[in-house]
Design a protein that fits this description.
5% of the residues are buried. The protein is an all-alpha fold. It has 2 domains: 46 residues, no CATH class; 29 residues. The two termini are 27 Å apart. It is 61% helix and 0% strand.
Length: 105
């Protein structure tokens, strides 16, 4: 990515203050994330305000990631389509950046 594109993208990206402060993940959930070879995402630090919700989310998310039967590319397209339907800025940027020769499913 050249400097001009980076600068333009940085200007467009709004600086959003988090609605909830990030919270330290409790030891039980840290242990589970390590067992799954996961990363400590900021999403987990927001969900950390409710440890039981975080535990449920970790199990749900890793089940979707690891125990699914759909192809990874199809899952990514489903995620992007859902985000597009919600009007997500991430989806708009992802679709705009997609190469013209993306394989059609």
């Amino acid at each position: 990515m050249d400097t001009e594109v980076k600068t333009t993208a940085a200007k467009r990206a709004p600086k959003i203050k988090p609605r909830l402060p990030l919270k330290e993940i409790d030891e039980r959930n840290k242990k589970r994330i390590r067992e799954l070879n996961g990363e400590f995402l900021n999403l987990y630090r927001v969900l950390g305000h409710h440890a039981n919700l975080l535990s449920a989310w970790i199990e749900f998310a890793y089940t979707l990631r690891r125990d699914c039967t759909t192809a990874r590319t199809l899952r990514e397209l489903m995620i992007l389509r859902g985000a597009q339907l919600e009007g997500s800025e991430t989806a708009r940027r992802s679709f705009a950046a997609a190469p013209a020769d993306v394989e059609r499913l």
